[in-house]
Amino acid sequence: MTHIENAIQKMRAPSQMSIICIDITNKCDLACSNCTRLLANQDAFWDMSPPNFRLAARSLADYPGIIAVIGGNPCMHPQFAQLCQIFEEEIPQKERRGLWTNNFFKHQEISRKTFGIFNLNSHGDERGIKSVTPFKEISWFHEGTSDHSPLLTAIRDLYAEEEMWKKISACDINQNWSATVIQNKGQLRYYFCEVAASFDLARGTDNGFPLQDGWWRKPMNEFAQQIKHFCPGCGVPAKLKGHRDRDEIDTYSISNADIAEKTVAKKRKIIKINSIAEVGHIDVVTDYSPLLKDYKTQTLPKKKKKKKFFKSFVKDIFKRPFN
To answer: 3-state SS string over 63-105?
Structure first.
């Protein structure tokens, strides 16, 4: 068995994931260091169309986990209210409808009505803290800053092949987080990994698979093409020390110079590394450890406790660091 075949065998397929994302916009009011969506590195703003959002949600109709609407900041989508209505129509169970945001802006009430689960991370932004704090007791909540491990430090630049694939097989995103559906130049695409989609959007390329109902049931070996293409160029499995989110600094290695250097014109600071020794490691991709007191766990309404899958997902996800 080759190194890549062995790695794929150990990776989680979307059907084994507790959460799958739908990215509805790349607009955000923040510009975090080493953003998992590479928002500062994309060339133009985009918003998922309402008809495409309906198709994306419908493709996950039988998926038993949480469907997380995410961005960017999804609340900056110009048709957010319409998307909420569509979400209710396509996914009747409120406890399966999730919203990941740092600031609700004007959408607190419709968000409370539409979504049954929230991941709220203001990244220390005062406006965001004010917006999300009223939801503090019913959400996964973090109001402080955090250190983001860099995505652009390609693991193939840092490790020999055998060690590289060993680390890829244990990647935090694959083991703990999400596959995703995105809109790429107007077309819906699905990916085994939310970060893989970010690389396509940052490069203006299209290595996603055309959306189809039930795509999330596919076994991991059917994603081999995406895994071979994206994983060696990603920095997540390396778990290198990055920068505080609010510092707006991206660390990169030579394989991703094309993406990193796009932001120089935006006056964003970038730091190139050539070896692991230059930065060192962290234990998790996003390090909240200095501010663990900011975490709040969720008190679930009794009716939701009847949902066995929902209970198990919540129990599982509270063990892990938040995106």
So the answer is: CCCEEEEECCCHHHCCCHHHHHHHHHHHCCCHHHEEEEECCCC
